[in-house]
Amino acid sequence: MENRQDERLGTEKLGKLIVSMALPAVAAQLINVLYNIVDRIYIGHIAGYGDMALTGVGVTFPILMIISAFSAFAGMGGAPLASIQLGKKNYRKAEEILGTCTALLLVFSVVLTVIFMAAKTPVLYAFGATENTITYAQQYISIYLIGTVFVQFALGLNTFISGQGNAKIAMLSVLIGAVINIILDPILIFAVGMGVRGAALATIISQAVSCIWVVRFLTSKKSVIRIKKQFIRLDKKTVEHIAALGISPFIMQSTESLVLITLNSSLKNYGGDLYVGSMSILTSVMQLISIPVQGMNQGIQPILSYNYGAGNKDRVIGTFKRMLALCLSVTIVLCGIAILFPEIFSRLFTDKAELLAVTDRVMPIYFLGMTVFGIQMACQSTFIALGQAKVSLFIALLRKVILLIPLALILPRFFGVMGVYYAEPAADIISVLTTAVLFVVTMKKILRNWQK
Predict the structure, then answer these.
(1) Per-residue pLDDT at 62 exceeds 70
(2) Above 80 in pLDDT, residue 355?
(3) Which keywords accompany this UniProt record (predicted)?
(4) CB of 87 within 8 A of CB of 276?
(5) For the CA atoms of the chain, what is the radius of gyration?
């Protein structure tokens, strides 16, 4: 191969390299969240029924998260493995991993589309829809599901672009789709009069364009590793390796839907549609806060994986320290703004006085524990980058499945509807402390057994 873009991951000065990898990845993540955030902003301002439409679309979030979780399973499970192989100069193996992930994404696309199309109505009711909101939820998800394959490829394969050191190209693949989405949203929602259906259609058109961009790059000579026909198959051993590492990001994203089901159900029982609407806004703000950190981690992760494969201990340790400082700084600053000035965020999504009052009251509580969550996100990303599947899986389960869901069911019995909001900071603080201890213990073992 003529192109050796990946080699800069092991040779370029760390500070410069981290900035060049992290900034485009942060931009890509921020742009990516616009797919849903922009939809919600426009939907929330539809005259006459914007508040109910916003709540209805909020009920579809768990399905969207499950779909993206499967793309993370393949992409975030395979890309670090491919980067490790690039560090070892084993380009053929890296392409085999890419091919297997492509096959997995194809299978996931078909299965998810069929299942959710067939069961969408009962699923939406289970996720918190009511008679007032089910129509809007159905309108949105019915069109969105048509573009499942585009979402899978755009998200799942883009990690292989950043994983070879092409962070700017990975950012552009997201930027192109987001710009199209932002342009189409007001046209289809308001000008054409499609309402919620227009928001969904704008999203899948933009994802289709991103998908085409990603696939075109990964089949071109510009890519260090390429999608090749002979490798697009479900190789059993490769799938097992991808699954071992991919199950962690899969659980982190898919359990987000389980968390939303639990939170929305509890809010519906103890508070009603108004509180379910507030959670839709809080979830959107949570994305705005966590996305920059996820972007930094996604950008920095290939540096960790490549140098781990190459046996560069000092670069791995130096990279982690910088990533930890960046992640923690961002969560402290952004959560601090949400806690002190909640109205800055809430007014982006609604102008309804009752919904604003509830959201502004609960937002400081909801984001209190997330101020230090940058610690967990940095540690979790490092575990994945270094191929530490078991501990990464435990951490993925800890915050949401082991802590948050039970707390969201138990605390409302004592504190009413506010107990649902108390559950989030309690789970965040406990999981951060546990993760920090596990990281210190695990890294000591890794350093003792480091490749000589």
Answers:
(1) yes
(2) yes
(3) Antibiotic resistance, Cell membrane, Membrane, Transmembrane, Transmembrane helix, Transport
(4) no
(5) 21
**What pLDDT is stored for residue 287 in this prediction?**
80
Lookup: tokens for 244: 């071992």
Burial class (CB in 10 A: 0-12, 13-18, 19+), 146: middle
- Among residues 265, 241, 249, 331, the alpha carbon closest in space to that of 65 is found at 249
Contact between residue 293 and residue 327 where contact means Cβ atoms under 8 Å apart: yes
CA distance 29 to 36: 12
| 8 Å CB contact between 85 and 93 | yes
Alpha carbon distance 332, 321 (integer Å)? 17
Number of residues written out for the chain: 452
Report the half-sphere exposure of 300 (CA within 13 A, side-chain side): 33
Q: How far apart (Å, rounded) are the C-alpha atoms in residues 349 and 347?
A: 5
Per-residue model confidence as pLDDT tens digits over 210-250? 999 999 999 999 999 999 999 999 999 999 999 988 988 88
Q: Is the pLDDT of residue 1 over 60?
A: no
Q: pLDDT, tens digit, for every residue of 260-296?
A: 778 888 888 888 778 888 888 888 888 888 888 888 8
Look-up: residue for tokens 């524990």?
369
CA pair distance 176, 351, nearest whole angstrom:
30
Alpha helices by DSSP H, 129-272 = 134-144, 148-162, 167-186, 196-218, 236-270
Q: Which helix (H) or strand (E) holds 336?
A: helix 313-340
Is residue 38 a contact partner of residue 210, using CB atoms and an 8 Å limit? Answer: no
- pLDDT of 311-341, one tens digit each? 888 899 999 999 999 999 999 999 999 999 9
Output the six-digit token pair for 256: 């987000």
Residue where the block lists tokens 């998200």: 155
Judge contact between 306 and 86, C-beta under 8 A: yes
8 Å CB contact between 246 and 50: no
Q: Are 68 and 253 in contact (CB under 8 A)?
A: yes
Residue owning tokens 């991919």 = 246
Q: H or E stretch including 77?
A: helix 61-87
Residues 69, 250 contacting (CB under 8 angstroms): yes
> 130-148 pLDDT, tens per residue?
888 999 999 999 999 999 9
Q: Tell me what percent of the residues of the chain surpass a pLDDT of 90.
A: 52
